[in-house]
Every structure is written in structure tokens, then in C-alpha cells.
Fold this protein.
Amino acid sequence: MTSPCTVSIRRADEHDVTGLPTLRRAWSEEQAGHPLEDDVFEEQFAQWYAMEAPRRATFVAEVDGKAVGTLR
């Protein structure tokens, strides 16, 4: 028998800044149907997020402490 997973949804904070671009890239690639050839994606996302964070609520979904998704 497997043990149940711990699932949580919480508001993103400054500790999530490095992981959010990775989740956003994964979402963007899923939407595009292929990997993105974009060497500055994470950098541009970080800049966008820094500007938008004060105006937007971002939440992180975690399974067993690992971020698996976001919601804005």
C-alpha cells in the first residue's frame, strides 16, 4: 500500500522566485506542444514577475513539498 501524498496550495513568496520560471516554461512548452528554444525565458520571466508581483496574487501547488503548478 502506498502512503497518501501531502498536497498543499499556498501563496507564492520570495522563496519561489527561482522555481516559478521553471513551472512557467513547462506550461508554455505544454501549450506549444514542443520545447521552447529560448535562452532568456527564465530571465525575462523573472523581470516580468518582479514588475507584476505587487499587482497579482500567485499561488503554488505542491505535492510532498515539491512545486508542481501555479495559479495567478
